[in-house]
Amino acid sequence: MVLMHSNSISSMIKFTVEDHDGNRQEVEAPADMGLSLMEVLKASEYPVLATCGGMALCATCHVEILEGKDGLGEATDVELDQLENLPEYFPTSRLACQIRIGDILEGAVVKLRGEDVV
């Protein structure tokens, strides 16, 4: 899936998304628009509820960073509070709404963990 930005192809980054069934697909997104990972996943038609609209209040955009977590930094306290309330979370769990698309995601592998809306 490709989320295109009409002005610049050179600032596109690529990362891989693993869905709930274990299928992997490369996603390309603009690194210079300030989008969150949640916004890109929704635009790419992945089943991400994002009930709170990206405010880190619901954890329905829960993802696990399988590869490339080192550049993302640590989860914030607000993010951790939501993750800790989930029935299952992992040391590499994050909320997609709290991760900004940028060079740090280049080559990363992200597994969808939030509620499946399909």
Automatic annotation (TrEMBL):
It comes from the Bacteria. The keyword Metal-binding applies. CDD domains: fer2 (cd00207). Its cofactor is [2Fe-2S] cluster. One of its GO terms (biological process) is P450-containing electron transport chain. One of its GO terms (molecular function) is 2 iron, 2 sulfur cluster binding. Residues 11-116 form the 2Fe-2S ferredoxin-type domain. Keywords: 2Fe-2S, Iron, Iron-sulfur, Metal-binding. Belongs to the adrenodoxin/putidaredoxin family. This is Ferredoxin. It comes from Algoriphagus sanaruensis.
